[in-house]
Amino acid sequence: MSRRLRFTCGAWLVFASLALGQSPTDSGPPGSLKPPPWYPVSASGPRSPPFDTLIMGDNDSSHADSGKGNGPGGGRDSSTGGASSSATSANPAAVDIVTGTGALGRFLGFDKESGVRLGGAWIGDVNWLMSGGLKPGHWTGDCLTLVDLTLDSQKLFGIKGGLLGVEFLQFTGQPVNDEAGVVQGYNGLVVRPPLVRQELYELWWRQELFDKKLVVRIGKSVPTFDFNNVSRAVPVGDVSGDIPSVSGLIYTPLFVNTTLAGKIPGYYNSATGITATWIPNPNFYFSYGCYDGNRATGEQIGLHGPQFNGHYFHIWEAGGTWRIGSENKPGKFGAGVWDQTGPLTAVNGAQVQGASGAYLFGSQRLWYRRPGEDNSGVAAFYQFGTTNSNTALARQYCGAGLTGFGLAPSRPKDSLGCGLAWAWLNTDPNAGQFYFPDVPGDSTRMRTNELMFQSYYQVFVRDGAYLQPNLTYVPNPGERPGIREAWALTLRVIVLF
Asked: Which residues pair with 124 in a beta bridge?
């Protein structure tokens, strides 16, 4: 290990140690915060909310259409007064249909009874490619701004069960992942060019039907909110048992399974379409989506309106949640299949009709540090995907990770974690030139596989604000066979408002 690498790793550990020793932010006397408003309470006590719960309230954090969101909603259990981890996703734009805490709207005078929720997020980071890759020693930076407006149709217009959502996205970045030669993307905030963009990210109508057992959303949105979303929080009906955002990892495969990359619309290429979720009971769901599928042709569909020209992306997913063991540890599982229609260009230049694949994901609470008092402890997640299409960047993918919540007594709202992402890449002799034509060298291939390790420590600064250092190691960057192993350090700031 080089002197520079030892110094950097030591500095990162010192930073984490200092953070662990800081005093926690006190948000009031014990028991002063009630459970978040998305926890329904029946006569028998709290119960798990449906998978498609989207409720606007004072402690409102970001919500995916299929479950509770990943913002700073973890507060205190009203029965115990114990502080709970408020871990958030490192990229809310990839996993949460409603962004931020709603603080911007409250500042402007819109309370929870107004039917108007205005929030957003600002995310910025600095990346240092410490060694290896294509440009060792290079520094890059990027930032993302989201502004989100959600209108409750019942409170505003008397239309029961309806919501209207609008979101604006602005991104400025640099080719962070390409400079490291990493196929999967060690920084999920940066995807493909153009790397400076402003777009109408979301514009949708959401309607609850049949006593909330069927929820339909139509318009422009991001399918990764609803499908293959391993990062989504696991709500269980009481704050002390809740799993917040399952992981704060920043790498791209956490948000988009590598076998789906370039096919499923997602951050920051949203798409017009329809999502339908059937929830027969609080512990099971089935979802179907159909969207503009021109992302598979290389179009930047996030920057323009729908193009219904024979390219469609269909996806089906089923899943459920449970609690097991004497401590009722929560878990979730989902599995799905997808189908891309229309003519596509394969890596070898041939014209093929469509592509398809399958995936699964899940998470499980492994350990409670203080059972019944708060949600501190350890959880795990896993992912898998497969496709046999020669138009795909990767044929198989698997990933897994561990997350610790509130493990330091003096830092109850901090979290930390690690993960690995392993992709078996397209082995066509022309795959490297097809996907990454600007990489220097004589080879036109990609590596046969790419393995990535990442760790992070997410520091809770104050409500809605987080500071997160991340360390990434890629022993075999996949854009070309001869690229040296890469080490990268990223410092990310997350502000939800």
From this structure: 143, 493
Distance CA 433, CA 493 (A): 35
DSSP assignment letter at 175: -
CATH number at residue 27: 2.40.160.180
The separation between CA 246 and the C-alpha centre of its own chain, rounded to angstroms, equals 9
How buried is 349 (Cβ within 10 angstroms: 0-12 exposed, 13-18 middle, 19+ buried)? exposed
Neighbours of 203 (CB within 10 A): 16
For residue 268, whether the previous peptide bond is cis, meaning omega lies within 30 degrees of 0, is yes
Q: How far apart are CA 436 and CA 438, in angstroms?
A: 6
Tokens of 84: 């709970």
For residues 247 and 234, the answer to whether their CB atoms sit within 8 Å is no
Q: Is the bond preceding residue 194 a cis peptide, omega within 30 degrees?
A: yes
Specify the long-range contacts of residues 366-370, CB closer than 8 Å, at least 24 apart.
366/329, 366/402, 368/327, 368/329, 369/406, 369/407, 370/82
Contact between residue 144 and residue 169 where contact means Cβ atoms under 8 Å apart: yes
| Whole-angstrom distance, CA of residue 206 vs CA of residue 225 | 14
Which region among 232-236, 356-360, 428-432 has the lowest average model confidence (pLDDT)? Answer: 232-236
pLDDT of residue 243: 54
Domains in the chain, number: 1
The average pLDDT across 8-24 equals 41
Name residues whose C-beta falls within 8 Å of residue 86's C-beta, 6 or more positions apart in sequence: 71, 72, 73, 74, 75, 244, 413, 460
Q: What is the pLDDT of residue 85?
A: 61
Tell whether the model's pLDDT for residue 36 goes beyond 50: no
All residues at 6 or more sequence positions from 163 whose CB lies less than 8 Å from its CB, including other chains: 54, 150, 151, 152, 153, 205, 206, 207
Tokens 């299409």: give the residue.
Answer: 389
Domain carrying residue 264: 3-496
pLDDT at 372: 83
Query: Is residue 13 very low, low, confident or very high in pLDDT (cuts 50, 70, 90)?
Result: very low
Euclidean distance between CA atoms 450 and 186, whole angstroms: 11
pLDDT in tens, 56-70: 333 333 334 433 333
What is the predicted pLDDT for the residue at 87? Answer: 85
Residue 229, helix vs strand vs coil: coil
Summarised one tens digit per residue, pLDDT across range 290-329 is: 999 999 998 999 998 888 899 999 999 999 999 999 999 9
Site of tokens 């950097």: 8
Cβ pair 194, 491 in contact under 8 A? no
Burial bucket for residue 291 (CB in 10 Å: 0-12, 13-18, 19+): buried
**For residues 484 and 476, what is the distance between their CA atoms, to the nearest angstrom?**
7
**Total number of residues shown for the chain:** 497
Average pLDDT along the chain: 84
What share of the chain in percent tops pLDDT 70? Answer: 80
Residues facing 165 on adjacent strands = 150, 204
